[in-house]
Hints:
By secondary structure, this protein is of the alpha/beta class. Helices cover 34% and strands 15% of the residues. The chain has five helices and five strands. The strands form two sheets. The chain has a three-stranded parallel beta sheet, sandwiched between helices. The chain has a two-stranded antiparallel ribbon with strand order 4-5.
Amino acid sequence: LYTDFFDEIISDRFETVLDQADAFIFSDLGTTTFGYAIATKKPIFIFETLLEYVSEELHEAIRGRCHVIPSSISQDSRLIFDKEAISRLLEERQHEPDTKFIENFM
């Protein structure tokens, strides 16, 4: 799914290796790793379909902190997303992350 977007898969505990990553791509926001990642200044990429499983009151803050990739789920339950959008966002100069999510919800 993400083979075009990473150099290495690290299988150690996330909190011990998070400094080795340049950015994070999440396919699930219900993990403890998301909480660790959101507290860093590193870019975070999530799929728009994930917001369907999150309270609407969090959407604006999550969108402010994360790059949201347009996506959908196909009839055979496959994630469909714009690979070019991820590539473009990874190539862009990253700005200081929005901290509203941390300030308001953590």
